[in-house]
Amino acid sequence: MILRLNGKFKFVFFSFFAAVILAGAYGLNAPRALALTISPVKIELSGDPGKTVTDQLTLINEQNAAITFYTTFAEFSAQGESGTPQFSYVPGDLDTWISAPDKVTLAQGEHKPISFSIKIPSNADPGGHFGAIFFGTAPPQAQGSSQVSVGAKVGVLILLKVSGLVKQGAGVIGFSGINGNSFFSNFPVNLAYRFQNSGGDRVNPTGLITIKNTFGATVAKLQANPGQGNVLPASIRKFQVVWTGSAGDPPVDTIIKSPSNFFAAAGAEWSNFAIGRYSANLNLNYGSSSTNSNFAFYIFPWQMLLELIAILIIGSLIFIRLIRRYNNWVIKRARVK
């Protein structure tokens, strides 16, 4: 079975890879802009031990001249809890199973399909194996037993599932506000949960976060994994979900900061009012399993309330002053009569 994740957009620069290649850790030069489009940016495959899986990708030369691109392979694992892949160029697993042309020459503006194959060893462990195919402008250089590309390059992620009995084990290990915060003065409310995968294959959790107010009424339903992010084996991934308090889809895996200016914060509280205790219920499905987690938080718009109190105090003082002036005027007029 082959799952192709083709996007509708061309990626002139595969910024995802450029951002995560650890130049210092692997002795690479900092990548520069490269006018090469690769599609798709991620390929998911599955196969049996001892079998060969084939597929293809497409390269498009966006430069105004013919150019040769050199091929290298890497495997990757999870780096930290952000979901960012960490690439390794030391031959070890899927990177040694992949075969593709050593180099590809593209004419100006040429679209060229590139076929590749994955020969799965007969003793391959069941479950997930993760690698990448890179195309760079400079020939790879030998570093020990590995071939490491230098300079700018773009690539495609390869996610392979080898059939067989796969260890299962995953679940939520924490659900709260960002940095453990349970008190908010205004929107947005930034929520986060940590998902641990102790199984043998990647997990793609899906589900909803349902938010209810003090009276038990549902006020929002948020996608728990809007970016459809995977959790790799033996890793923990932190997912961030934003409740903006208004209609529309929030950004994916992004924290939205509240206004830092007092009056701006008070204005935001006026325009998007909320107050009281709220409960968030996280309901996740992953494979044939599911899990629930709950988190209670409070919204207290203190900037708006302080502003309102100040307005009431000033208004009361003005009203009292006007009443006194009116009374003095009445008394003065009565004395004249």
Secondary structure layout plus pairing:
Layout (H helix, E strand, L loop, with lengths): L1 E4 L9 H6 L2 H4 L9 E4 L2 E6 L4 E10 L5 E13 L4 E5 L9 E2 L3 E4 L4 E9 L7 E10 L4 E3 L2 E3 L4 E10 L7 E8 L5 E2 L4 E9 L8 E7 L5 E6 L11 E9 L18 H10 L4 E11 L2 E11 L2 H35 L1
Parallel strand pairs: 3-13, 15-21
Antiparallel strand pairs: 1-3, 2-4, 4-9, 5-6, 5-8, 5-10, 7-9, 10-13, 11-12, 14-16, 16-19, 17-18, 17-20, 20-21
Secondary-structure element sequence?
EHHEEEEEEEEEEEEEEEEEEHEEH
- Highest CATH level, the class of the largest domain: Mainly Beta
Distance N to C terminus: 104 Å
Estimate the global geometry from the Cα principal axes: elongated
For CATH, the homologous superfamily of the largest domain is named as Immunoglobulins
Q: How many DSSP H or I helices?
A: 4
**SS elements, strand count:** 21
**Gyration radius, to the nearest Å?**
29 Å
Question: In terms of per-residue confidence, which ranges show pLDDT below 50 for 5 or more consecutive residues?
Answer: 1-33
Taking the sheet with the most strands, its summary is: 7 strands, mixed
What structural keywords apply?
alpha+beta; elongated; 337 residues; Immunoglobulin-like; 21 strands; five-stranded mixed β-sheet
Please explain how this structure is put together.
The structure is a single chain. The chain has 337 residues and is α+β, with helices and mostly antiparallel strands. The chain has two domains: 2-162, Sandwich (Immunoglobulin-like), CATH 2.60.40; 170-300, Immunoglobulin-like (Sandwich). 16% of the residues lie in helices and 43% in strands. Strands 1, 3, 5, 6, 8, 10 and 13 form a seven-stranded mixed β-sheet that branches. A five-stranded mixed β-sheet has the order 15-21-20-17-18, with no helix packed on it. A four-stranded antiparallel β-sheet has the order 2-4-9-7, with no helix packed on it. A hairpin with a 2-residue loop joins strand 20 and strand 21. Helix 3 (262-271) packs across helix 4. The longest helix is centred in the C-terminal third of the chain and has 35 residues, at 302-336. It is elongated, with a radius of gyration of 29 Å.
